[in-house]
Each structure stands twice: as C-alpha cells, then as structure tokens.
Amino acid sequence: MNKKTVRDIDVNEKKVLVRCDFNVPQDLETGEITDNRRIVAALPTIQYLLENNAKIILCSHLGRPKGEVNPKYSLKPVADELSKLLNKEVKLAKDIVGEDAKRLTSQMQPGEIVLLENVRFDSREEKNDETFSKELASLAEVYVNDAFGTAHRAHSSTAGVANYLPAVSGFLIEKEIEFLGTALENPKRPFVAILGGAKVSDKIAVIESLLDKVDTLIIGGGMAFTFLKALGHKIGKSICELDKLDLALEILEKAKKKGIEIVLPIDTHVSTEYSNDAEDKFVHSQEIPDEWEGLDIGPETIKKFGEIVKDAKTVFWNGPLGVCEFSKFKVGTEEIAKILAGLDATTIIGGGDSAAAIEKMGLADKMTHISTGGGASLEFLEGKKLPGIECLQDKD
Ligand code: AMP
What we know:
By secondary structure, the protein is of the alpha/beta class. Helix content is 33%, strand content 16%.
C-alpha cells in the first residue's frame, strides 16, 4: 500500500485541514489532560506544515459527546497544550463549520494554526454526512489524515471530506502503514506473533490473517483457555467461550496443515476469585482445579515464550497475557514486555492494553513500533480496508 503523504503535495500557502487524534485522557473533575502523548505524537506533521509555509486547520474528536455541543468535551485544553508545546498561538474556533470557524480560517496567514471544535459536537460527523463533509472541506484546500486511531471509521472528518479535497496522510499514518503493512507483509523471519486478551471471538479474523504470515503463533491471556478446553484439558472456572471450541480446534488444525506452531501456556497463575486479593497459586495449564481460574501465565510459560521470541527477527504482539489490571496478575504481561524490549528484532505492538503496559513501564522507545490505534491496528492486520486510509491518494 503506497499512499501519498504531506511530502508528496504542495502545501505552500495552502489551507491544510489535518484530522488529528486528540482524544486524550482527562481528569474527570478538572478537565486537565492527564496524558499528552497523542498531542505530542501529532507534532511532527504539524511542524512539517509550519516549516513548509502552510495555513494549518486542525480537527479531532474528543470523547463521546454524541452529536451535541457539550463543554465537557471542548478541545480548549488541547488548544492550550498544543500552544504550549509549539510555543505558538493556537486559536480555538467556537464551532466546527459555523460562523466562528469560517471567520478564523478565512483570513489565515501561512504559519497560523486554528483548531476547530470537537467534530463530534455535530451529529453529522459520525454519519459521514455528505453536507457536513462538504462544509468541512470548504474551509481548506488540502486534507491530511493523521488519526490512525479512527481510520477504521468512515466519518466525515476521517474519510468523507476526502471526496472533496486532495487527500494525503500525515507522518503518523505513514508510519502505521509502513510497520503494520509493509513490515508484516514481508517480515524478516522467523516471524512470531503473540496474542492475548480476553476473548477468542474478538480476534478470530486476526488469527486467520496471521496464520498466513507467521512462523509461530503464541496464544496467552484469557483466550488461551478456550484452546486448552478444546484440546480436552481441565481449565477450572477460567474464562472460556464454549461456543468457540470447534473454531479453536479448526484453527489448531489449520495451523498444523500450514506447518505453523501454535504455542499455548504450560503453567498458569490461578486464583479462587477474579480478584487481586483472593488465594492464588501456580498450576499446570492442562490441569486447573475446578474451583480455580487462570488469571495470568506462570513463570515456566514466561520462560518458554521468551525462548521462542529470542530467535525471532520480527515479533508482533497484541493483548495482555493476564489480567493486567490486577498487580498480582500483570506479571506475565510485564515480563513479556521486558523480553521484547531486549530483543534485536523488529518489534511491533498493536495498540490497546499491551501498548499501555509498555508505555507505563517506560519501554516504548525500546520497541520498533507501537501502533496508535487498538481497533484500527487489528482491522488493518485482518486485511480490512480502513476508510481513513483508503480515501487517501495513491502514490504515482
Ligand atoms: P482485549 O481487549 O481483548 O485485548 O482484552 C483485554 C482484557 O483481557 C484485559 O482487560 C484483561 O484483563 C483481560 N484478560 C487477559 N487475560 C485474562 C484472563 N486470564 N482471564 C480473564 N481476563 C483476562
């Protein structure tokens, strides 16, 4: 997939509408931004546009205001933070495509930045309404999508607007395409994928797609128990999708035919309750006693998974290997993160809980790529066409 980027289009003195992902976590009471990483991540594209004399119009959603103006979800804190980071005025429009947005964007000078209000204040945004897309487009001359986290949604600001403007990607989406696309399509081998998380049903399409690419597939987290049960093992009261047992067997069979090894946990950290405070112990993963549930992988499994990835040249990881919300059961996820951080391989992390764990541990810069989109990165890997990427111009 070869999509044009901001480098491939003339932005000099042009009004450029950039769809960013400024959906940042905030303090519920004060509205203060508690983690500015998504804003920091948008800076390279904005800085490039500044250096190339563009008039920059930024837009994003924040939270779920459900199509109504709600000051709680105003982008004001984002405008302030951006302004601080860029050491430059960022004007916040009071609306998205209304009088104030038109006024602020009509007389812009190169190097000026205007941030439109939350695009989800207008109910037409999520409907990918044609009129709204046109109104957004009418503010600018070029469209840049740099919001990978919403690229799997066909909304006005993520896709519809591209029907009316020349559309290219920003640097964040360029990087996602490079790593989730190119690097995983033609991986350096051995290529090992690690999948965790609660349910098999959420990841069926990803597993199917990975079976065409990987040499080894490691399965941990809650979803491993459906596979263990399907193989006839005792899993106690661990999380399990009984209606997916046949599917699990089919997946195992398919992998076998393709010569791909699926590796499951060999020991499990179990608890009497889904809690951080109940009794716990380590047991063999194939013999979990009736009243116990598996909440994390055990030390033998960590060692085994570590040995497998040690020789890999490419590793993709999505989904925690245990209930990482509980301090007692986040060990497997954290140990695997540490192992990946020390590898001399291309390490690509799908967004979500595994990415959050890595960032919390301060290991982000030890990975080759951490995707900025959880759902979007999985859909991309499944081979689905993401509207926010499809709508961009192809390179010649
Ligand atoms: P996902 O969004 O599919 O990546 O799933 C993430 C969730 O999986 C996290 O909230 C974890 O608590 C949960 N999870 C991981 N391992 C287990 C497990 N052994 N039992 C129950 N839930 C788990």
